[in-house]
Amino acid sequence: MEDNLGFIWFGTHDGLNRYDGYNFKIYKNKLSDPTSISDNWIYCFQQNSKGDIWVGTADGLNLFLRGEERFIQIQSLKNNETKLQISAVYTIFINNEDNQEILYFSTNKGLVKYNHEKNQFKVLYPKALGNPSDGNYIRTIFKTKAGKILVGTSTGRIFYLNTYNDSFTHFEGYTYRERIIRENSVNTFLEDDFNKIWIGTTFGLYSYNYVTGEKQYFPDLIEVPKEQYPINVYALEQDKKGDLWIGGHGWGTAIINPQTGKVVNTRQYNEPTFTSLTPSVFCIYADKRGLVWIGTTGDGISRYNPYTNRFNLVNNKTGLKILSVRTFFEDNKNNIYVGGYKGIEKFNRTTNEHYFYSDKSPRGYSLVNPNIYSMEEDYQNKGKILWIGTEGYGIVKLDLVTGEINNRPFKNRLIGGEYGSYIYSLYSDKEHTLWVGTERGLYTINLVNEKIEFFHNIPLDTTSIGAKSVTKIFEDSYGNIWVGTNLGGLNLFDKKTKTFTRFTFDKLIPNSISNNHIKTIFEDSKKRLWIGTNGNGLNLFNRDKKTFTRFTSEDGLPNNVVYGILEDNFGNLWISTNFGLSMFNPEKKTFTNYLQQDGLQSNEFNSNAYYKSTSGELFFGGIEGYNSFYPEKIITNKNIPVVRITDFRIFNNEVTPNTFINDKVILRKAIELTDTVVLNHNENMFTFEFAALDYVAPVKNSYSYKMENFDDRWINAGNNRSATYTNLNPGEYIFRVIASNNDGLMNNEGATLTVIILPPYWKTWWFISISLFLIISLVYFVLWYRIRLIQDQKETLQELVLERTSELEQLNKELKKSNSSKDRFFSIIAHDLRGPFNGFLGLSDMLKKECDTLSKDEIIDISNALNLSIKKTYNLLENLLNWARVQTGNYDFSPISISINDIIDEIHLLFIGNLSAKNIKFTNNTDSELMVYADENMLNSILQNLISNAIKFTPRHGEITINSVIEEKFAKIMVKDNGVGIDEDTKSKLFNIDSHITNKGTENESGTGLGLVLIKELILKSGGEIKVDSEIGKGTTFSFTIPIA
After folding, report:
1. CATH no., domain 892-1043
2. Which of 883, 900, 992 lies closest to 940 in space, CA to CA?
3. Pairing with 215, which of 111, 473, 598, 941 sits 20 to 30 Å away (CA)?
């Protein structure tokens, strides 16, 4: 099958193969890859309208997604849920029904109708066949031009399928044979251009004319052994010419005329137009070019190529006895004489008889030396005498009337001796002169008196012939004698002066002749003189300017060794070379080249081995025989080749669809379906591989490519199919490749692929823009800063004055505030110290005056009172000292991880006497596992003050509760009492040093008024905060936060 992109697909027992004319791409099952094909045994495939390919295998149905190059295995066919249990899929047919593609495929369970979009299956089976498990399965399916669908079975029955109601009816064009029903499998169908449906079965070939109703049976297209009768037919195909190809197992192929039903050819053995043909054929495909592809059993693919026999080939395999052809001649009876090593062969083209002259021929007809270099008919004795030049034995004469040979036709023994015995060239003119070119020079023979005139090279005499060895003698339409030499260039002979004018190669003169070794000289119908050289191509002589125009392999010539030149009836020059045959159009200056694949005897031809017959047939000889042809009858390949990019590699690593390279996917689709690739700047070495999908002679397809925005001109790649680019700068490029087919027909549109190479980030527009913006901004900032600095310096003096004035005013305010705070602080100290000291004075006076009269119990009471006053004084001084440290920044703040519960328990023990005295219930509800990050002394001071205040303002039988909660990264500690409460005015002044508040406790306990101020300072230093909530007569709650450890 040829797909919509031009690739040829083959199904084998070892995978699905895609062919581009050069390489096979094989898709096989991989057990570990669910996206591979389900089985390697391929029975059939069909491409749908999207370009994807349905493939039937020995293990189910697959859909090959062309762009992604992966398979979807249709598992529903094998699921127990569907109860289909289908394995092999033999034939696939796609039908368009209600704008949907419906797939029909034949299986061992019947014909399956499948809607892929809806994933719906339906098994269709003719009731007349019975149970499919008995081997009565659907073998093939086919749609006629009229839209009818034919179904062939393994037991020889054919039905019509009605796709609207999924019913079957019998096909009227096939004779049902009861005696062979169990063996006669219907294998294939074909409808030709002449109203016939052809049916291939295991019991022969059938045809049915659906217009006339005529039925035919062809059991014996070719002769086969009785045990193979009648022949089986597995493949049918109609080629480009309309002929019907039939293939089967064990007997090969046959070609019949579908109108007459007669066999026109059989192909059972290898022939020049076939490759590796085997007698077992299972499928045939004819492409649009006229090629016929033949699938064989065990022998791969054979191919019929009509373009390989466009030249008639005569060689040793076809009966030619000459080993290497060196010369030709046609007599007046159109007999062709072919000379070369081993003799001369005469072909009677009317009777197809031939006669061979050699050293072993009968006496009078034998050649003493059978190695022939040249032949020339006598001008005055046309149809009678043929002069023959030999290798080392001089000149021989052949009597064209009697066929007799005279090995010594001249009495002068110098002929063929001193003047040279290797006769490279002979020319007979109308003046009875025979011109002879040998390894020793040029000489002429007067055929009337055998007078000889010898011309040889004379050193330092530029008017002598240019070299010793003469390779070609030619007289043009002006009567000029041109002599080609080996290493002496081209020589023009002046008959009057008997001198030579030399034309030789000069590397300093571009329009000199290209080489001094002349192989051939030819004048065309427009009297242009052409010279072929040994190694430097073809030359056109300008008679007026005495200059040469060169044509070499760079211009399209297949090889620079030019052996022979002939002109056809259309003005084209045919040129034999050391690598094929070329047709040159002198007007367009174009070459069309032919190689051995086109049917040439080989790619190497010989000197002097070219001839044009009176009928216009051209002959060219070489080392493996000769070719003859009429140029106007040559089949040319007129198919413009489709060009595809077939592979893409980065650093010689193949890039496939949806695979990651450098952490990104480069190809989302197959390269032949991709229009743009985007690469990073460091992915700048990549290779394209491409192919002209013309299969006539792929090796002769030629390519040119160009990377736009990089290449200045097209690069002529010849038959090289890859292009590599390295170190391309970031940017956008377009890769273009064009190609010609084997006959030079060019596809000038070719294939294109946009290549975008991304720049590195430091070369992107946004990076450059940002950098430029930053540079401009920096310059602007420097300028602005300089100007601003100057302005600031001017304003500094004014601002300095204002600043100093403001500082002085602020210092004055702070000084006043400090003095006020100091006064207030000393007022607090004086007030708070007055009480304790008055107690000291009163108690000390009492002891002084009444010491002798006081009882022991009274003295103890006075001592306890003194001790309490001392403690109060100490606590006051401790708070004063801590507050001063905080204010001056000298407080030793060393936070550690501490248990808040343990601290509270310790303070509880400290105040247990106070609590008992007032019968106050104390409850610690803090979390025993709660750890806080705080200074231990600071935390002790905070809690002691808060608990002391709570005891002070809680009446007898009251309650103090301490709770804790977590708030994000802080612990919130709440000290709650049910005491007298605090009014709003007092609450607003509690933490202000300027507001001295000293309320008496419930039992007239005194306070310092400095504790809460200190608490606030310490909590703030710990990173927390303190709040108070209170209601008169119901109690107060002090809450503070501290970081969690």
Report:
1. 3.30.565.10
2. 900
3. 111
Between CA 504 and CA 758 the distance in angstroms is 56
HEC string for 907-954: HHHHCHHHHHHCCCEEEECCCCCCEEEEEHHHHHHHHHHHHHHHHHCC
Q: Are 213 and 220 in contact (CB under 8 A)?
A: no
To 10 degrees, the CA torsion angle through 430, 433, 437, 443? -150
| Cα 488 to the center of its chain, rounded Å | 55
User: In 10 A of CB 43, how many CB atoms?
Assistant: 19
What stretch(es) of the chain map to CATH 2.60.40.10? 643-762
- Summarised one tens digit per residue, pLDDT across range 404-437 is 999 999 887 767 678 999 999 999 999 999 999 9
Arch. (CATH architecture) of 321-409: Beta Barrel (2.40)
The one-character DSSP state at 238 is E
Tally Cβ neighbours within 10 Å of residue 135: 14
Nearest CA-CA partner of 283 in 297, 271, 267, 262 = 297
Contact assessment for residue 1015 and residue 1025, using Cβ atoms and an 8 Å cutoff: no
268's enclosing H/E stretch is none
- Roughly what angle, to the nearest 10 degrees, separates helices 1011-1021 and 936-952? 150
CA-CA-CA-CA dihedral for 109, 112, 116, 120, to nearest 10: -80
Could you read off the pLDDT of 813-840 as tens digits, one per residue? 766 655 555 555 555 555 455 545 655 6
As a whole number of angstroms, the distance between CA 944 and CA 951 comes to: 10
Among 60-69, 109-118, 961-970, 1008-1017, name the one with the lowest average pLDDT: 1008-1017
CB 253 within 8 A of CB 266: yes
| Region 254-278 average pLDDT | 66
CA separation, residue 385 to residues 19, 63, 377, 434, 716 (Å): 57, 74, 6, 12, 51
Which one is the CATH code of 796-889: 3.90.650.10, 3.50.50.60, 1.10.287.130, 3.30.230.10?
1.10.287.130
Q: What pLDDT, on a 0 to 100 scale, did the predictor assign at position 811?
A: 73
CATH 2.40.10.500 occupies which residues in the chain?
321-409
* Measured distance CA(151)–CA(186) in Å, rounded: 9
- With vertex at residue 37, the alpha carbon angle to CA 32 and CA 39, rounded to the nearest 5 degrees, is 90
CB atoms within 10 A of CB 15: 20
Characterize the bridge pairing of strands 372-377 and 385-390.
Answer: antiparallel
CA 176 to chain centre: 53
CA atoms of 272 and 308, how far apart (whole Å): 7
Burial 281-293 (b: 16+ CB within 10 A, else e): bebbbbbebbbbb
Q: Please tell me the distance from the alpha carbon of residue 841 to that of residue 1039, in angstroms, as a whole number.
A: 39
Q: CB under 8 Å to 14, separation ≥6 — which residues?
A: 26, 28, 40
Does the pLDDT of residue 218 top 60, yes or no? yes
Spell out the CATH class of 643-762: mainly beta
pTM of the full structure: 0.67
User: What stretch(es) of the chain map to CATH 1.10.287.130?
Assistant: 796-889
- DSSP, collapsed to helix, strand or coil, labels residue 983 as coil
Give span(s): CATH 3.30.565.10, the chain: 892-1043
Tokens of 6: 């031009």
